[in-house]
Fold this sequence. Notes:
By secondary structure, this protein is α/β, with parallel strands linked by helices. The chain has helices at 35-43, 75-87, 102-113, 142-150, 165-170, 180-186, 221-229, 251-269, and strands at 15-20, 49-50, 55-56, 62-67, 92-97, 118-122, 155-160, 174-176, 194-199, 236-242.
Amino acid sequence: MSLYYANSSLSDAQIIVLGLPYDRTSSFIPGSRFGPQYIRQCAENIEDFSPYQNKSLGDLRISDLGDIQFFGDDWLGQIEEEAAKVISRDGLPIFLGGEHTITPSIIRVTKKTYQDLTLVQFDAHCDLRDEYLGEKNCHATAMRRVIDTLGVEKVYQFGIRSGTREEFETGKNLYKFEVLKPLSEVINKIKTPIYISIDVDVLNPAVLPAVSTPEPGGISYRELVDALLLFQDKRVIGADIVEYNPLAAPPYASGSTVAEVLRELILVMAHRD
Ligand SMILES: [Mn+2]
């Protein structure tokens, strides 16, 4: 199934949604591969009008390309190939995970078009390990691999409340526990173009229990939306929503929350059109 509000061909779209159900290195609860399809299903429960932004998805041209079917061994290479096809279009891409592992591959391709790219990450976890359980490319190393591509100064991390001492010392724009307050303080220093990576475990597990690695603490739904609204007049050229795992907890309330995050993100990104 497609997002019910997807009404546009690929070539005319302002926003292009692509599912990347990569779920290969989950170290705790596997199941994020089912994220994109549950987001689409739960979107059925979500109005196309946002009372937060006073805007409607119905006024936009949105294309939903469905999910990648992975095959062979080089899944990350496949992500780069498919992401490149989307990034070459006029529409702005939003990728639905899957694990956070997808983000470095997307960023490697995105940087070819946007050399001065900055990444803004909302997450409970640093994801700054150089290696985890023998894996260089996994959910726990995702932002370290992004730093390999963009440089440490070009990565901003908010809501972080889990990591090793070394990880906390690695991040140069790393803001613990909170999102809205630190982001409000630095947003005008963040250079554009911006790519936003939303790991939904940034939310409190009481708000969103259906994630692959739940972490106590965390922000409210409203704080996440208010943080996204700060990007309304910024040049956001791509984004992802990752780590929603419908197998980790009752999926529908969580999926509706994620589907609403997607709505707000789409409306924020398409704002400049
Ligand atoms: Mn995380």
